[in-house]
Amino acid sequence: MSRVIYSYTKSVLERVSFDSKLFCKELEKALHVLLPFEIEQLTIWLLKYTEERPELRHCLVCINR
Protein backbone atom coordinates (compact mmCIF):
# COMPACT_ATOMS: atom_id res chain seq x y z
CA MET A 1 0.00 0.00 0.00
CA SER A 2 2.74 2.48 0.87
CA ARG A 3 4.33 2.00 -2.56
CA VAL A 4 1.10 3.30 -4.07
CA ILE A 5 1.34 6.48 -1.99
CA TYR A 6 4.95 6.98 -3.07
CA SER A 7 4.02 6.62 -6.74
CA TYR A 8 1.05 8.92 -6.29
CA THR A 9 3.27 11.53 -4.61
CA LYS A 10 5.70 11.51 -7.53
CA SER A 11 2.80 11.86 -9.95
CA VAL A 12 1.37 14.84 -8.06
CA LEU A 13 4.76 16.53 -7.85
CA GLU A 14 5.29 16.12 -11.59
CA ARG A 15 1.85 17.61 -12.30
CA VAL A 16 2.39 20.70 -10.10
CA SER A 17 5.99 21.36 -11.11
CA PHE A 18 4.85 24.36 -13.16
CA ASP A 19 4.38 26.32 -9.89
CA SER A 20 7.18 26.26 -7.32
CA LYS A 21 4.92 27.36 -4.43
CA LEU A 22 2.46 24.57 -5.14
CA PHE A 23 5.33 22.12 -5.59
CA CYS A 24 6.71 23.02 -2.14
CA LYS A 25 3.28 22.72 -0.57
CA GLU A 26 2.69 19.26 -2.05
CA LEU A 27 6.18 18.17 -1.03
CA GLU A 28 5.51 19.24 2.56
CA LYS A 29 2.29 17.22 2.58
CA ALA A 30 4.08 14.19 1.19
CA LEU A 31 6.73 14.33 3.91
CA HIS A 32 4.02 13.92 6.54
CA VAL A 33 2.57 10.83 4.86
CA LEU A 34 5.54 8.88 3.53
CA LEU A 35 7.60 6.40 5.50
CA PRO A 36 11.29 7.21 6.21
CA PHE A 37 12.67 4.91 3.52
CA GLU A 38 10.20 6.38 1.01
CA ILE A 39 11.40 9.88 1.90
CA GLU A 40 14.94 8.75 1.12
CA GLN A 41 13.79 7.40 -2.25
CA LEU A 42 11.84 10.57 -2.92
CA THR A 43 14.90 12.68 -2.10
CA ILE A 44 16.97 10.78 -4.66
CA TRP A 45 14.19 11.17 -7.23
CA LEU A 46 13.85 14.89 -6.46
CA LEU A 47 17.57 15.54 -6.88
CA LYS A 48 17.42 13.97 -10.32
CA TYR A 49 14.08 15.59 -11.24
CA THR A 50 15.19 19.10 -10.27
CA GLU A 51 18.42 18.93 -12.26
CA GLU A 52 16.44 20.14 -15.26
CA ARG A 53 14.20 22.40 -13.15
CA PRO A 54 16.47 24.64 -11.05
CA GLU A 55 13.52 26.83 -10.07
CA LEU A 56 12.29 23.95 -7.89
CA ARG A 57 15.61 23.32 -6.13
CA HIS A 58 14.80 25.63 -3.22
CA CYS A 59 11.92 23.31 -2.27
CA LEU A 60 14.41 20.60 -1.30
CA VAL A 61 15.26 22.58 1.84
CA CYS A 62 12.10 21.27 3.56
CA ILE A 63 13.37 17.68 3.28
CA ASN A 64 16.24 18.35 5.67
CA ARG A 65 14.02 19.70 8.46
Characterise the protein shown here:
With 65 residues, the chain is an all-alpha fold. It has helices spanning 2-15, 20-33, 36-49. Helix 1 (2-15) runs antiparallel to helix 2. The protein is globular and about 30 Å long.
Looking at how many chains there are and whether they match, the oligomeric state comes to single chain
The total strand number stands at 0
The level of helicity is 55-70%
- Total number of helical segments? 3
* H and E order: HHH
Structural class, from secondary structure content? mainly alpha
Radius of gyration (Å)? 11 Å
- Overall pLDDT score: 92
How would you describe this structure in keywords?
mainly alpha
Mind sketching the topology for me?
Blueprint: H1 2-15, H2 20-33, H3 36-49
Brief description of this entry?
The protein has 65 residues and is mainly alpha-helical.
